[in-house]
Amino acid sequence: MKKTRKSFADLPPIRVRREPPTVIEAVTAAQDLSDDLEQQVEIAAGLIGLAPDEVRPHVLAALRAKPERVPERIFSQAGPSRAPRTVIVERRTRPPVIVERRGRPLDPRR
Fold first, then answer.
1. What are the pLDDT digits (tens) for 26-83?
2. CA distance from start to end of the chain
3. What global pTM score does this model have?
4. How far apart are CA 24 and CA 31, in angstroms?
5. Predicted pLDDT at 16
6. Sequence-ordered strand ranges (E) for the chain
7. Which of 49, 57, 72, 109 sits at a 20 to 30 Å CA gap from 101?
8. Distances from the Cα of 19 to the Cαs of 1, 48, 49, 106, in angstroms?
9. How far apart are alpha carbons 67 and 62 in whole angstroms?
10. How far apart are CA 110 and CA 103, in angstroms?
11. Where along the chain do its domains lie?
């Protein structure tokens, strides 16, 4: 007995739940997008949907609590006084993830 095929018209509509970001999430996103304090207030207020005056105390509190970012490690090698200095920037990357698919082996006759 064959199963009947369901079409997308037979399925109920997909319901999407919309949750605005919390104040902490909006302030964190604003800090990552801009270094200017006023722009951070505007970005966070726009994400939450509040007035900038309501968000400003949260941005100021997060500014004091946020530690400085550690930049990439920069090494400099000093040479003779007239020679240009060599600067080496190290970036750490993660190795690529390799996903091995296991399924039926390929038919050698094809």
1. 999 999 898 899 999 999 999 999 999 999 999 999 887 766 655 555 555 555 566 6
2. 31
3. 0.48
4. 11
5. 81
6. 73-77, 86-90
7. 109
8. 44, 10, 12, 46
9. 10
10. 17
11. 23-90
